[in-house]
Design brief:
Elements (H helix, E strand, L loop, with lengths): L5 H14 L11 H7 L6 E4 L3 E9 L9 E8 L8 H15 L4 E6 L4 H9 L3 E12 L2 E11 L7
Parallel strand pairs: 3-4
Antiparallel strand pairs: 1-2, 2-3, 4-6, 5-6
Length: about 160
Amino acid sequence: MTPNDWPAVRAIYEEGLATGAASFETAAPSWEQWNAARLPHSRLVARDNAVLGWAALSPVSKRSCYSGVAEVSVYVAAAAQGRGIGRALLDTLIASAESHGVWTLQGSTFPENAASLALQARCGFQSIGRRERIAQRDRVWRDTILTERRSRKIGVD
């Protein structure tokens, strides 16, 4: 992903946000805000003449002891869903994360987002638990399912 991809990435992100099932966020940030909130590596786009989806990692903490733990974001354009793009992005994101020393990936997913939870399970994520009423979206308390994938290559000593 490059800054030139941002308009397409942002459009896909906004499409996901509009569903109400993808994030607590309700509007996409500027490129500068988005860029500052993500790790500098493991930023991916899927292309077929146009950007069809994207994936990126966010740090879960600023503490150095958690430097190998990141939160996963994967978004696929509605018109491109069901074609294996999410799986390809997540598989590639996992490999990239491990190549950069990330030992644990986390997901925080609304329980209604069955497709995302199923994708994560197919890629080795386990459900850690349900966080009840963890935050509000549109003044409605929402739960999330916390998922985790521990690397079998990084941080195994």
